[in-house]
Amino acid sequence: MDWVVELVTDLRAPVLYALVVAVVFAETAVLLGMFLPGETAAIVAGVLAAQRQISLEVVLPLVAVAAIAGDTTGFLLGRRFGPALLNGRLLRRRRAQIDRATATLRRHGALVIVASRFLPFLRTVTPGAAGASGVPALTFLPAALAGGLLWGIGSPLLGYVAADSYHRVEEVIGNTGLVVLALLFVGWWAVRRRRRRQARKAEDPDTERPVDVPAPPVVPVVSTLRRVLAGGYAGTALGVVRPRRRTDRRRP
Predict the structure, then answer these.
(1) pTM
(2) 166 or 78, greater pLDDT
(3) Which residues belong to any copy of the VTT domain (predicted)?
(4) Which domain holds residue 17?
(5) Which of 7, 45, 89, 105 is least crowded, fewest Cβ atoms below 10 Å from its Cβ?
């Protein structure tokens, strides 16, 4: 990034503002981030603001608005042209992977959109992928607004605070992005594994059903005793002879 700072040092403030806005906007709107990340432009803008070449109060809202506008444009373009690309011959062999990625984006759309703003590659492709996969606009726009504000204000501030060591800031941001990406992958893997288990249980409910073990026969002691006591063998069982009825027979 040193050569970028040296290249734009002699430019006037209006030109610098226009360049920063154009790069940040085009990163997600037309996939310029594949070649020139908008994060570089945002950090350089903060460095130039620390050197008093441009105003930080102007840079912060410009970068945030450009980021939100770029994400929204990429989302609309993905909604218009994305389905034809996803269903084309070039990606036919990746149909299963695309379906899984699309389902993940639909389930966790807002979280993925906000988090992707801080990851170099995902920041470029997520808006178009969200539009192509059918993510509702009411889900995408608030997430893009939140991510754009956080990233659009935070990136220039990092460059402004660490103007003397902006190359270290860029390295730290790259490492942080990798850590965030790893955490997202682990969380996605855990959720996927849990849902697979639930799907297997739903398909084969007998796998988790406890085995019915026949209970040992229970001798009805009480009822048997009652029958013995009440029946004709009560006297025998108790060792008592039932007395005979006395009948008064009067002799004539």
Answers:
(1) 0.61
(2) 78
(3) 36-156
(4) 2-205
(5) 89
